[in-house]
């Protein structure tokens, strides 16, 4: 995400895709509290190819000492110096001009210290994938970021995040910045394949110490390799199949209390949650355009289940279980 340096406050400012400057505090992205600044003085925006600045005020906007006419656009370059209304004011310096991207902008950086934003993937673990405490993922139906805590002592809870919302992890604070807001209809036009279209093929070793997972849809085959968290999904698939044999309907199949599943896997709840988050992240990273990923693992009332209906489990060369 592009950002500029405010020479007056000695701080860095992340640029929204359409970023406004002015004196009207509640209506602009960067508030400049000086009487000679217009209420809406200037805007920096992403055109789809480049960042450019537009003069909106009556008292002047300068780029490297060159004055912009009213409503004039000018492409920006790194190290450009921007001044509003007065050229002898400290002004701003263009630092970074990367395209917009969803990210967490750090709020605890010391003055003058270059920020290190966290650019968000479709499923992101914080502080990292080895010791995750929070998971952020993009819901492909609502195109809204969701946040889950890995605190095993708390009831499972998903919290929706909007542009500008704060995210706290320990003593660290970030602000969510969206590159753009895409509505559900527009988002669905990008891809039509659903996760529910895929068949999950589990290949277990005879001692069930290793589990390889493949996703198959017609001629398409995606090998996800051998991972410990694949066995968790295979175990949930077994519960779903067992409930189908009992005659339960599709909406009722496969639900199991998380503590019971953890006991079956020989894991504590925290370690099992790490497996769950790593599994979701692997699927999201491997299938970036597939919709409906929220059904992979579903939760309610302290229970969890595998939400997909098509699967097979092989043990060695033998097919031991197939979805009804």
What does the model show?
Helices cover 15% and strands 36% of the residues. The protein is elongated. It has a 6-stranded antiparallel sheet, with no helix packed on it. The chain starts with a strand and ends with a strand. Mean pLDDT is 89; it is low at 181-191. It is built from 4 helices and 27 strands. It has helices at residues 184-188, 228-245, 258-265, 269-286; strands at residues 3-6, 11-14, 18-22, 30-31, 42-46, 51-55, 61-63, 66-67, 73-75, 81-84, 92-96, 103-106, 118-119, 123-126, 134-139, 144-149, 158-161, 166-169, 172-177, 199-204, 211-217, 220-226, 256-257, 297-300, 303-306, 311-315, 318-322. It is an alpha+beta fold.
Name the average pLDDT. Answer: 89
Structural class category: alpha+beta
- For the largest sheet, list the strands in their spatial order: 2-1-11-10-7-8
Percentage of β-strand residues: 35-45%
Q: Which of globular, elongated, flat, extended, rod-shaped describes the shape?
A: elongated
Radius of gyration: 25 Å
Distance between the termini: 47 Å
User: Low-confidence segments, ≥5 residues, pLDDT <50?
Assistant: 181-191
DSSP helix fraction: 10-25%
Give a quick account of the main beta sheet: strands, pairing sense, barrel closure.
Answer: 6 strands, antiparallel
Tell me the number of helical segments per DSSP (H or I, 4 or more residues long).
4
The overall strand count is 27
């Amino acid at each position: 995400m592009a950002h500029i340096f405010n020479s007056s406050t000695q701080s860095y400012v992340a640029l929204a895709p359409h970023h406004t400057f002015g004196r009207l505090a509640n209506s602009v992205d960067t508030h400049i509290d000086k009487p000679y600044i217009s209420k809406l003085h200037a805007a920096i925006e992403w055109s789809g190819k480049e960042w450019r600045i537009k003069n909106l005020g009556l008292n002047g906007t300068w780029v490297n000492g060159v004055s912009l006419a009213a409503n004039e656009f000018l492409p920006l370059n790194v190290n450009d110096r921007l001044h509003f209304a007065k050229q002898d004011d400290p002004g701003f310096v263009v630092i970074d001009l990367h395209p917009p991207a969803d990210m967490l902008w750090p709020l605890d950086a010391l003055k003058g210290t270059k920020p290190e934003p966290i650019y968000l993937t479709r499923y992101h673990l914080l502080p990292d994938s080895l010791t995750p405490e929070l998971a952020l993922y993009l819901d492909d139906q609502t195109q809204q970021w969701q946040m889950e805590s890995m605190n095993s002592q708390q009831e499972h809870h998903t919290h929706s995040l909007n542009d500008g919302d704060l995210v706290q992890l320990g003593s660290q604070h970030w602000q969510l910045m969206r590159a753009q807001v895409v509505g559900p209809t527009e988002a669905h036009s990008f891809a039509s394949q659903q996760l529910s279209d895929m068949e999950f093929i589990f290949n277990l070793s005879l001692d069930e110490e290793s589990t390889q997972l493949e996703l198959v849809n017609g001629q398409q085959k995606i090998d996800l390799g051998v991972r410990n968290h694949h066995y968790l999904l295979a175990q949930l698939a077994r519960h779903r199949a067992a409930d189908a044999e009992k005659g339960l309907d599709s909406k009722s199949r496969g639900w199991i209390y998380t503590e019971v599943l953890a006991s079956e896997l020989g894991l504590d709840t925290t370690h099992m949650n790490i497996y769950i988050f790593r599994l979701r992240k692997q699927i999201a990273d491997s299938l970036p355009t597939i919709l409906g990923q929220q059904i992979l693992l579903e939760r309610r009332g302290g229970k969890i289940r595998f939400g997909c209906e098509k699967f097979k489990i092989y043990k060695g060369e033998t097919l031991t279980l197939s979805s009804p």
